[in-house]
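Q: Predict the assembly, please.
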Amino acid sequence: MTTEAAWEPVRRVRMHEQVLAQIEEKILDGTLGAGEKLPSERELVSALGVSRTSVREALRALEAMGIIEARTGSGADAGSVVTARSTPALTNLLRLHLALARISLADLVETRVQLERNAARGAAESRTPEDVARLSELVEGMRTADQEYAQFNALDTEFHVTIARISGNALATDLMQALRGAVESEMAAAFARLPDWRAVAGDLVTEHEMIVRAVEAGEGDRAAELVAGHITRFYQDRVLNP
Amino acid sequence: MTTEAAWEPVRRVRMHEQVLAQIEEKILDGTLGAGEKLPSERELVSALGVSRTSVREALRALEAMGIIEARTGSGADAGSVVTARSTPALTNLLRLHLALARISLADLVETRVQLERNAARGAAESRTPEDVARLSELVEGMRTADQEYAQFNALDTEFHVTIARISGNALATDLMQALRGAVESEMAAAFARLPDWRAVAGDLVTEHEMIVRAVEAGEGDRAAELVAGHITRFYQDRVLNP
DNA sequence: CGCCCGGTGTGGTCATACCAACAAAGAGGT
DNA sequence: ACCTCTTTGTTGGTATGACCACACCGGGCG
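A: Predicted assembly structure:
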């Protein structure tokens, strides 16, 4: 008996996959960093010996993942540029994944609670006076944001994302933001069903204030519980059993 | 002063983006579900009034997100098929995102711990005897997997993913799996640096056994702490300060 | 009956041409 | 000398047509 594994089925490797793999490798090993520009499509064509079709399909895949951005024209910032803004792409992917994998809203909310609970705890530990001021400012903005729901929601999102950022975990911040964005439309629909969303918003503002105070006081466990309750309660009362 | 917002800059909407948007919408509203086949590229061309180039670039974007799979040939299962297997794509996206956003391994491990802690707690609550048997089976496999690291790692991954699955949260399961996959190469490198990885693997197996026992006993908090320590310790001792 | 072998439809690739956007170089007038 | 307009070249975006590799499917031949 040898240590060899069983036969591995050969898969047809398409041209654009190889192009994609080469670019991804240059990103992973640091050759290509955020903000840098990759060669023009026509240059890649001659450098890789494939058609522009294949090059473009690879670039399209990268763009769908939020890895690059394409800008037309000539000059310094034209061409395909590597970007670090993959959060929107992550959001979009999650949104589709939720629909296809038939993941329940309950699972998503539970996951969000897990992440936000830890973010609140971390924020309470490492917050600075400036952080607290920023949070208070956002809450104040929410209190006076009586124009429309979109405005309120934008501030609400920034509040929670800011807490995650304060906690210092960049990945958790991005995931939180993506999960939030993936159910943004559902949340908007839930708000639209409310007879008076302003009253509910008032309650949320009060809860936000309590969270800010707990973070300010450095009471991590309390902040975590407040955030968890804040999210769970809204979901239970307004979305699941409206 | 009106309630109108400021002018919104118009962006050039490319053809393939519109194609992509239409397909995504059909997925989001349930018209297109997992396993279903979309029209052939040439049909889409005549249905949408665009060139095959644009159709293909949209499909390529969907494929990069793991939403569809393309199979050549004719017959029933040929063509572009909607799939629910977006976890590999999520893994790949996260891997690139980590490199570009310069997210530290510490942040990733911390996030993993958060998710796994909750998964262990949930698993201890809702485990069945079959679940426990499955976990024990995996641990036993790890004990006898002395051939090579890849084999051990595959079982290790399945162990943790199984715990998440037992907890019942499909999204957390997928995220855990993706995060794990995103750092698989780093972990393999860490193992390769060990003078005797089999000894370390033995410790890991012992820890796994303790986790299984806690899950079996329904001791959620204890299972959570064990998993957290299990992951953090390995990372601290073997990766950060090897 | 069973095997082979084109027909047909699918995605994959290529080459070419042209369009749209944009910047920098150049031509022209003041 | 300065400003303005035009030209030119480079970039990504789209369209078209052709051809290839693949896989099923059915007819025809042994």
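Chain B has a mean pLDDT of 93. The radius of gyration of chain B is 23 Å.
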